[in-house]
Amino acid sequence: MKKSYIFGIIVIAIAIGVIISSAGDASQYVSFKEAFAMAEAGDNSKVHVVGRLERTPSGDVVGINYDPVRDPNYLAFNMIDNNNEIRRVVCYNPPPSMQDFKRSEQVVVIGRVKDGQFIASEILMKCPSKYEDSQIKG
Questions:
Q1: Which of 117, 115, 126, 93 is nearest to 32 (CA)?
Q2: Is the pTM of this model over 0.90?
Q3: Given 3-state DSSP classes, what are the helix, strand and coil percentages for the chain, each rounded to the nearest 5?
Q4: pLDDT at residue number 6
């Protein structure tokens, strides 16, 4: 066999290995109810939960527990998923800007259920300022 054929087979085998390993890390979008049911069934895989922060009727965010002086790596907040279920979410890697976090329209938490609570390893935010139409004056 030629060396170029052997090299090609090795490259293809590595590519297949990378695809298979990354497919194992892929998580799915679920509700809090589904995430907690998966945890009870013994499934410890990461999931995405889409929702919004709990707010007062006037629009103020409620239920955030974040004290950067005491522990800058601890954030807990109430989140309402798309099925209107409210759950407490704990994150040990808070977003860099709490102001953007509080203004966000929608939040996606990536994590898993552990010891009866949702532990987020990552928080993604949809901020309204990023999606407003801007007019170009000419």
A1: 117
A2: no
A3: 30, 35, 35
A4: 84
